[in-house]
UniProtKB/TrEMBL annotation:
Transmembrane segments: none annotated. It comes from the Bacteria. One of its GO terms (molecular function) is DNA-binding transcription factor activity. The keyword Transcription regulation applies. It comes from Adhaeribacter radiodurans. PROSITE patterns: HTH_DEOR_2 (PS51000), WYL (PS52050). This is YafY family transcriptional regulator. Keywords: Transcription, Transcription regulation. InterPro entries: CBASS_pafABC_assoc_protein, DeoR_HTH, HTH_11, WH-like_DNA-bd_sf, WH_DNA-bd_sf, WYL_dom. It holds the Pfam family HTH_11. Residues 8-63 form the HTH deoR-type domain. PANTHER family: PROTEIN PAFC, PTHR34580.
Length: 243
């Protein structure tokens, strides 16, 4: 087996992995990602189909895997496993207990599929990483996972919020739009507030109560980049002027 064969097998495996993690991918996106021609991607897709991988083509949209199809667990390299273990330490200090809990569960599954030699090295690295106590938060939140679910399913949230700059407690119905991490204030939720009739930033540690409603909203046309650019025009950083 020559180098070209090895590269192609590696690319084919990576294409299947990408298709499993994203709903739709175009030939152009794949060609740019793997630095090959679109014609090569067409040949790769055909080869995968002939090998029995159920790839569906949506005309004018791209490629997707058949619903329910799963590839065997991905084997992580030592460097990839080290990166995930390092991220685990940072996330544990992220200021949100729900995120820390979910990531700990996820990283346990990753460690379970590691080869024995890599597993030992990862465990050693895990015991040799420490995060400064200065990054600890006195008032951690516990709602990030719920907010993420609402954001991706376009569901309205009902919150009780303690506003810092006005020192008032208000009941809000908000449409989650994006998440922003600030070293000064930890996790912030950018959302359309139906009370203020505008986009606002909410500190997660100042959300006193939160409830996911069975009330959907239409996705906003605004992009996160556009929102942050607009904030920078008015303030020094996007962290200024919370809700």
């Amino acid at each position: 087996m020559n180098d070209n064969d090895v590269k192609r097998i590696s690319r084919l495996t990576a294409i299947v992995t990408q298709l499993q993690t994203k709903r739709l991918l175009t030939a152009t996106q794949l060609s740019e990602q793997f630095n090959v021609s679109i014609r090569t991607i067409y040949r790769d897709i055909k080869a995968l189909e002939q090998a029995g991988v159920p790839i569906l083509t949506e005309i004018g949209k791209g490629y997707t895997l058949m619903e329910g199809y799963k590839v065997p667990p991905v084997m992580f390299t030592e460097n990839e496993a080290n990166a995930l273990v390092t991220a685990e330490q940072l996330i544990s200090k992220s200021g949100d207990t729900s995120l820390s809990k979910e990531y700990t569960t996820a990283i346990s599954k990753v460690k379970a599929v590691l080869q024995y030699s890599t597993k030992e090295k990862v465990e050693l690295l895990s015991n040799r990483i420490a995060i400064s106590p200065a990054l600890s938060h006195a008032n951690p939140s516990g709602s990030l996972t719920l907010i993420q679910n609402a954001l991706t399913s376009f569901k309205v949230l009902d919150i009780t919020y303690h506003s810092e700059h006005k020192d008032e407690i208000t009941e809000r119905k908000i449409e989650p739009f994006a998440l922003y991490y600030s070293l000064q204030e930890s996790w912030l939720l950018i959302a359309y507030c139906r009370l203020r009739k505008d986009f606002r930033m909410f500190r997660l540690d100042r959300i006193l109560k939160i409830k996911l409603l069975e009330l959907s909203f239409k996705p906003h046309a605004l992009t996160l980049a556009e929102y942050l650019d607009e904030k920078k025009k008015k303030f020094i950083t996007p962290d200024t002027l919370l809700s």
